[in-house]
Amino acid sequence: MRLQRVAAQVPAGARLADIGSDHAYLPVALLRRGAIAAAVAGEVALTPFNAACRTVRDQGLEQQVRVRLADGLAAIEPADAIDAISICGMGGESIRDILDSGKARLSGRERLILQPNGGEQPLRQWLMDNGYRILHEEILRENRFDYEVIVAERAGPVAYTEEQLYFGPLQMQARSPAFLAKWQSILQRKQQTLANFARARQAVPEDKVQQVARQARWITELLA
Ligand SMILES: C[S@@+](CC[C@H](N)C(=O)[O-])C[C@H]1O[C@@H](n2cnc3c(N)ncnc32)[C@H](O)[C@@H]1O
């Protein structure tokens, strides 16, 4: 379900680089249904790299999918003419670090399809700082986890407020049931954290208390 939602955001006929591809299920599924033209599956770790090679071989897709053992965007070569990049199933900070350290490999014409597990705020901050506009966002709940999908393209300077970076600018507008349920449960946790801070024997740094209090206030306003 999670990867299906990601797949739905990959443009038809794309040349996709799936970074951190694990078993290469996403590029292989897209190729099998003729949705993309070609793919690179990048993996930094040997066991998932071997798994990706096996999936591609078993499906007879060696001509269409290049599986590369590489760190982040180093899997992409200019000749691949990649126009969509997916990075899924990692923390938002890890996705941000992959994008940041691989900046030189980005032409700026790629659509980014990102599926962070937490850490969405720093990832959105990186997107804004690097001129990427968020085109689509969604939340889905699977196995009691909330997953976000963020789609962005480089489109010149964009300015998001702190709250937009925290909640997601499009999700704030759409206010889907999954989005409201996610923030309702995060608010409960923030309030519990603040209560724990108040009871803590050792003083919690004031800036930490203020940060959590500010976030709880934002969420309360959002849900009002
Ligand atoms: C939890 S799996 C997610 C697999 C798949 N993308 C998905 O969403 O189901 C994360 C994968 O990313 C790989 N990975 C982590 N950091 C990476 C990096 N810097 N470059 C390439 N792959 C990386 C890991 O080895 C692991 O196989």
Automatic annotation (TrEMBL):
Transmembrane segments: none annotated. Gene3D superfamilies: 1.10.287.1890, Vaccinia Virus protein VP39 (3.40.50.150). Coiled coil: none annotated. InterPro entries: SAM-dependent_MTases_sf, TrmK. This is tRNA (Adenine(22)-N(1))-methyltransferase TrmK.
